[in-house]
Every structure is written in C-alpha cells, then in structure tokens.
Fold this sequence. Notes:
There is one protein chain. The chain is α/β, with parallel strands linked by helices. The chain has one domain (9-254): NADP-dependent oxidoreductase domain (TIM Barrel). Helix content is 38%, strand content 15%. The protein has ten helices and ten strands. The strands form two sheets. It has an eight-stranded parallel β-sheet. It is globular and about 55 Å long. It binds NADP nicotinamide-adenine-dinucleotide phosphate (NAP).
Amino acid sequence: MKYVEMQGEKVPALGFGTWQIKGRNCVEGVKDALDMGYRHIDTAQAYGNEAEVGKAIAESDVSRENIWLTTKVWRDNLNRENLKDSVEKSLEKLGTNYVDLLLIHWPFPEIELEPVLEEMNDLVEENQAFNIGVSNFTAEQIERVQELSRVKLLANQAEYHPFLSQEKVLETCRAHDMMLTAYSPLARGDVIGNETLEEIGSRYGKTEAQIALRWLVQQEGVSAIPKAASHVHREDNFNIFDFELTSEEMERIHNLTRGDRKVNPSFAPDRD
Ligand SMILES: NC(=O)c1ccc[n+]([C@@H]2O[C@H](COP(=O)([O-])OP(=O)(O)OC[C@H]3O[C@@H](n4cnc5c(N)ncnc54)[C@H](OP(=O)(O)O)[C@@H]3O)[C@@H](O)[C@H]2O)c1
C-alpha cells in the first residue's frame, strides 16, 4: 500500500468506494475488501449503507483503528440545527465513536458555510471527526472554506480519472496541503477498452483499470476510491502496488483528458 501523508495523517492511497452497494452485498463487499487488505472505506449518509459498512467493520478481523473511515454529510443536515445529530446517527450506524474524515458532500447552493464549518470544527474538538473536508468544491470554494475554518481542512473529494483533468483543483489542494480523493476513478467503468491504457497495461501485465488507478495514486497528494461489487474487480483494483508508471506513461495518460464528467447533478457548482 502507498499512503498519502498530509497534515500529519497517513491515508491509504487506495480506498474502497461503496456508492450503490447496499444491504448484504455491502456487508459482504466491505468485509471482503478488508480481508484483502483495503484499509480505507468511503461511505456517505446519502448512500443508505452506513449501517452495513459498520456491520462489516464489526464482523471483520481488522480493528477499527487500522481503518481510515470517511463519511459525508448530506444536504438536509448541512445546517446548525441538524449537523451534529446527523453525525451522531451516522456514528451509531457505523458502530464507532469517530470517523477519520467527515466531508460536506456537495457545495449545495443554499447552504451557509459559516455555521456548518463551526459545527464541524466542534466535532473535531470533540473527537467525533478526526479530520474534516469537502467534496465537489471548486478551487475558489476551497479557498473560502479554508479561510472560514479554524481547523485546516484535510481533503477535497472530486471526480478524477484519465478522461477528466482536475489541474486547477489539484493545484489548489496542494497549495493548502490537502489531499485530493479521486472518486469515479475508473470513469464508472469507461476506462475499460481504452487503447492507450490497454497498451500501457500490456507492458506490465495489468488491466486498464489497474493502469488508471496506478496513474492516480502515483500523483502527489492523490488517493482513489474505486467501487467494485465483484470480488474479482476488488482484487484487480488492489493489485497496483507492484509496478510503477514512467513519467512518459504518466504524461500520455494525462493527455487522455476530454472533459468527460460522469457525475453532474443539477445542484453541482460551475466547475473549474
Ligand atoms: N463525493 C461524491 O459526490 C461521489 C460521487 C461519486 C462517487 N463517489 C465515491 O467514489 C466511489 C467510486 O466511484 P463510482 O462508483 O462512481 O465509479 P468507479 O469506481 O469509477 O467505477 C465503478 C464501476 O467500475 C466497475 N469496475 C470496478 N473495478 C473494475 C475493474 N477492475 N475492471 C472493470 N470494471 C471495474 C464496477 O463494476 P462492478 O461494481 O460490477 O464490479 C462499476 O461498474 C463511489 O463508490 C463513492 O464511494 C463519491
């Protein structure tokens, strides 16, 4: 495993994404991932699977302190009235008294950042969230939250894969000593069949998915959280630490960018 070392934290660079994995599949999937060596799990209030993630952690042989656990606060809870209660409920479902990272899921247009950040700062002081961060924030919005928060934000989670450049956001994250967590790192499966990734993969005996993930985690300050419902894919995605891409290969993959955004809800901000 490679780690992203940031602000004194050591985050496993490869995590397991759980969006759209529910019920027994989620419990079994997360347990299988932990068995395999994954030590970073990504969930959210909106995924409706925090209880299943918690059950998997409880049933696994891996102790809680060896897992990096991220959850995200959803829209209706991003206000002074609901935030703390909602996080308490999340912790209850997750079967733990802290998360390693608590994120604002989206910069919804109506949310007031000041009170939200105040509440999140309190949660850090109360050790319910060891770190806080954001998701889907633009470079300008990142600057703003860093200014508003007493505690330095650790991460921005954003869509990032070979077909979507995040140059500006990444530059801003680096300027603030923040990790960029790449979501939809496989472009929701679309990296499969890409000729460049396939050709580079054939040099190392690796799949397109493995090349895309390796490209991400080989970048400074970047982690990736692929989702895989199947054991075979989970294993494939985990086996990316026994080879290294050359700088020429890294560049070729950077050049695949074509502004291909997979996650673009109506409430998304104007992106960089
Ligand atoms: N913060 C946010 O707003 C946000 C938004 C989107 C996602 N996320 C997080 O990021 C995680 C990952 O993103 P994602 O689920 O959108 O997409 P993704 O990880 O890019 O792609 C998942 C798709 O790729 C397939 N796949 C996985 N591994 C593969 C492999 N080795 N070979 C071939 N196909 C493979 C999966 O198939 P199977 O499942 O059938 O194996 C699934 O169809 C989410 O689960 C979530 O935790 C966060």
